[in-house]
Write a structure and sequence with these properties.
By secondary structure, the chain is α+β, with helices and mostly antiparallel strands. The protein has one domain: TATA-Binding Protein. It has 4 helices and 5 strands. It has a 5-stranded antiparallel sheet, covered by helices on one side. The longest helix has 23 residues, at 2-24. 23% of the residues are buried.
């Protein structure tokens, strides 16, 4: 009985350690920031891509994305208004997701190319696609 309790305690301690590592692991801009058009798809289905043409100027689009990202608690990782990567965290466990957005001015407004991907885990239950819709998709009538 003592051995079983010790084993259960060890498993709990390992699970807690893993959760803490995932929660506080540093985010390397060299790894997570780049052009969303050239970043390859992750090997796991925990990402979403979005390309939209929005009939608004780039500074307006950037301002709206920034406001929504901050409302959701995301923080900038790297970039500038034309190419920005944010760290967004999952609601419950606060695991990091990376959202990279490129804005290109067009004659009709702004082309938005975005990639949202989870750093850890296998599937995302649609979290990344929903995030891109909240941050960007609402700007399209």
């Amino acid at each position: 009985m003592k051995t079983l309790a010790l084993l259960a305690g060890l498993i709990l301690l390992l699970a807690l350690g893993l959760a803490l590592y995932i929660r506080f692991a540093p985010s390397d801009p060299a790894r997570w920031h780049g052009d969303p058009e050239s970043i390859p798809d992750p090997r796991t289905p925990n990402f979403a891509r979005l390309v939209l043409d929005i009939a608004l100027p780039g500074d307006t689009v950037h301002g709206r994305i920034t406001a929504q990202a901050r409302r959701e608690g995301a923080v900038p990782l790297a970039g500038d208004p034309a190419l920005m990567t944010w760290v967004a965290r999952t609601r419950l466990m606060k695991f990091p997701d990376y959202v990279t957005i490129r804005l290109d001015e067009t004659a009709q407004g702004t082309r938005v190319t975005a990639l949202s991907r989870s750093r850890f885990g296998h599937g995302d239950h649609g979290v990344n696609a929903a995030r891109l819709q909240r941050w960007i998709g609402r700007m399209v009538p």
